[in-house]
Structure formats: C-alpha cells, structure tokens
C-alpha cells in the first residue's frame, strides 16, 4: 500500500532556468493549501541532501516569487550522490557513493516523498533514490527542451524569447554593416533553442546538432545572398552543432561534474570559416547564460504552475515515481525511470524543419540531407 504523504521535500537540480521559482511556489502552495502537507526545501539540489541543508517552507516563503528568475533554493549541476566527487590532498578527484547519507537526512526530516525539479541529470539522480525506496515525482525543467517523455520543459520558452530578441537586434546591425552575423545559442546536444529562435527571428541559416553542416554549403549560401543583393546573413547556431566529419567544439571539461563536457565555441569557428572562405566580413556573438536568467515569460509561468500543481496531485493520488509531462496540450505523467539517460533531440522530418525550409531557411546542407 502506498505510504500516506504528509511531509514532502522539494529540490531544484541541474542548470537553472526561468520558472523554477514558479514551480516551487506552485508545489508549496498547493501542497499546503489543498492537502495540509508540510513542505521542506532542499538547498542546492542533491547537494543539500548530502549536506543536510533542508528547511521548512511556508506560503510566505514562496509569496512574490512567481516572476523571479533563478531559484530561492539554489541549484547545483555538479552533485550526483551515487558518485559524489571530492578532491583529495593531492588535488585528485575521488568519487564516493554518499546515497546512504542522503537517505539518513530524508529519514531525519521524515520526508515521505521528494519533488525533484530538473532535467535528465536530475532525473537520473532521482532514479538512484527510487531504487532505494524513496518516492520521487519529477518536474521537467531545462532551457534545452531535451527531456525525454515531455513535449516541452519549462524554461525553454523564456530562453527562446531571449535568443529571438538577440537575433532581432543582431539583424539590424548586420543589415547596417552588410555583414554575416553568427549567434551561438545553448541547447547541448539538441537544437530546439536554435530552431525555434531561428524561425522566430527569420534567421537565414540555422545550424543544429541533429543535422551536421557542410561549411562549403554555408559559405555558398552566404555568398549567394550577397549576389542576389541581400547584403547580410543571420546565422543561428546551436552550441552542439557539428561540421560534417568533425567533432563538437568543447569549451571546457569539468571532471567534478556528472556532465563534464561544456560545449561552446562553434559560433566563432563558423564565423572565422565564413570570413576566410568567402571574404565577407563576419562577426559572432555568444548568448550564454543570459538565456537562463531573468524573469520567466508568461508561457513558462503558466507551465511551471501547471507542472507544480500536477506534481502534488500525482503524489496525492498515490502514483509513485512519476514524471509530470506535457503531451500535446495535456499535462499527464509517465514513469520517471523512462526518462533516465535519454535525450529528446529533433527528428530530421520535424514539421518545424520543413516549415523553415519552405521559407528558404538553410540548415547548412543540401535539402534532403
Ligand atoms: O542544460 C542547460 C545548459 O544551459 C546547456 O544549454 C549548457 O550547455 C549548459 O547548461 C551550461 O552549463 P554550465 O552552467 O555548467 O556552464
């Protein structure tokens, strides 16, 4: 029989994004107002579970945070309790399983379930606790929109809004100076941000990880526009985009992180190549973390509230270990373990790729590749 839920913990794990506070607010308020639960905030994701930094949340604590960026609980994208990384005296990284320490802290605070707000890394972390008998409900977060099982994650809409605004601004300066301008956006191994913001801003070229690009093709496209009297070109490139036959460009490797590869640099690479091969003056901009910060757009506030409410409902309906998801326009739930170690990338025949191509957007390859 499912355990009666009286006290729940809530944590935000992985890279932050806009809308985290809106979920914390929705979880806390609906748990307290609708079900009389006690809610405990765990600080800095799984790190707070390891270090026993857990505090009770009241409605007052979450009042006024709906529109705030970031997370009042803090987050960490470096902590996986089953492989907890520390440096020894020689500066070498050692990894230990500290799951039992976390289980003691969960027991100490008498938490009956955890609401785990995060992306694929956080859901994999939750899977470890589920295997140790802890009931976890997941809430899908990430600007990358790559979490398996849901059509959309909160934070994505805001990131696209920021990227679209940047591309619009780049558009006007590119036109004034008759330049090619490359804008590198985030997204890891999925091109959702580049695809959506590229379409929204009318970018001429969109480069995404799912379609390795041909540099000759990109340069010919830029030169072709110039020949037809279009004296500027806007290129939206996802940080994970790869030249055909090449590798992803890595900015940094962080051995203390469960996700050690930090992508970055493809925007500069593409800009340098265009200028060198075509002689057309080219500049690049990297948007970086501004896509994650700031106030969430209305769509993310709504989604975050729906997800937070649904997470509490799912727990109270006695459904253990679920991930609340959006499928079509309906919020529902799936087995949280089904999202473990999987990513949702863009299929080549996605309708948005077809729509973009239909208005003349290039993906840096011959059509059909
Ligand atoms: O997963 C979200 C994300 O912003 C990715 O788009 C990006 O590759 C990564 O996190 C950056 O991580 P960090 O904040 O560690 O630099």
CATH class of the largest domain: Alpha Beta
CATH architectural category of the largest domain: 3-Layer(aba) Sandwich
Radius of gyration: 22 Å
Class derived from helix and strand content: alpha/beta
Bound chemical compounds: 6-O-phosphono-beta-D-fructofuranose
Q: Could you please say which CATH topology of the largest domain applies here?
A: Rossmann fold
Number of helices: 10
Low-pLDDT sequence parts: none
The rough form would be described as elongated
Give the strand line-up of the largest sheet. 3-2-1-6-7
H/E element string?
EHEHEEEHEHEHEHEHEEEHEHEEH
**Total of domains:** 2
Largest sheet: 5 strands, mixed
Into which percentage range does the β-strand content fall?
15-25%
Oligomer: single chain
**Helicity level, as a percent range?**
25-40%
- Count the strands? 15
Describe this structure in words.
With 369 residues, the protein is α/β, with parallel strands linked by helices. It folds into two domains: 7-154 and 296-339, Rossmann fold, CATH 3.40.50.450; 158-292, Phosphofructokinase domain (Rossmann fold, 3-Layer(aba) Sandwich). Helix content is 34%, strand content 20%. The chain contains ten helices and 15 strands. The longest helix is centred in the middle third of the chain and has 22 residues, at 156-177. The protein is elongated. The structure holds 6-O-phosphono-beta-D-fructofuranose. 6-O-phosphono-beta-D-fructofuranose binds next to strand 12.
């Amino acid at each position: 029989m499912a355990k009666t839920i009286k006290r729940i913990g809530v944590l935000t794990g992985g890279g932050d994004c806009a809308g985290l506070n809106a979920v914390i607010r929705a979880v806390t308020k609906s748990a307290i107002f609708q079900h009389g639960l006690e809610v405990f905030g765990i600080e800095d994701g799984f790190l707070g579970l390891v270090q026993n930094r857990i505090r009770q949340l009241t409605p007052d604590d979450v009042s006024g945070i709906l529109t705030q960026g970031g997370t009042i609980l803090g987050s960490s994208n470096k902590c996986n309790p089953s492989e907890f990384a520390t440096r020894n005296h020689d500066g070498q990284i050692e990894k230990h399983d500290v799951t039992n320490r976390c289980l003691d802290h969960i027991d100490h605070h008498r938490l009956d379930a955890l609401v785990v707000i995060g992306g694929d890394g956080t859901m994999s972390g939750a899977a470890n606790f589920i295997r140790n008998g802890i009931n976890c409900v997941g809430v899908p977060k990430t600007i990358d929109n790559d979490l398996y099982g849901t059509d959309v994650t909160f934070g994505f809409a805001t990131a696209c809004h920021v990227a679209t605004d940047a591309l619009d601004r780049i558009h006007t300066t590119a036109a004034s100076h008759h330049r090619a301008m490359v804008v590198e956006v985030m997204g890891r191994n999925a091109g959702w941000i580049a695809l959506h913001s590229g379409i929204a801003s009318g970018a001429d070229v969109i480069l995404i990880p799912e379609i390795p690009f041909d540099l000759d093709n990109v340069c010919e496209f830029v030169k072709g526009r110039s020949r037809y009297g279009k004296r500027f070109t806007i290129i939206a490139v996802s940080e994970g985009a790869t030249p055909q036959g090449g590798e992803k460009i890595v900015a940094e490797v962080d051995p203390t992180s469960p996700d050690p590869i930090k992508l970055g640099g493809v925007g500069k690479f593409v800009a340098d190549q265009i200028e060198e091969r075509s002689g057309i003056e080219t500049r690049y901009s990297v948007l970086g973390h501004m896509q994650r910060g700031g106030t969430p757009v209305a769509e993310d506030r709504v989604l975050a509230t729906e997800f937070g409410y649904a997470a509490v409902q799912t727990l109270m309906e006695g459904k253990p270990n679920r991930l609340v998801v959006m499928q079509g326009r309906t919020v529902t739930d799936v087995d949280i373990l089904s999202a473990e170690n999987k990513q949702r990338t863009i299929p080549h025949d996605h309708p948005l790729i077809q729509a973009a191509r239909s208005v003349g957007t290039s993906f840096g390859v011959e059509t059909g590749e």
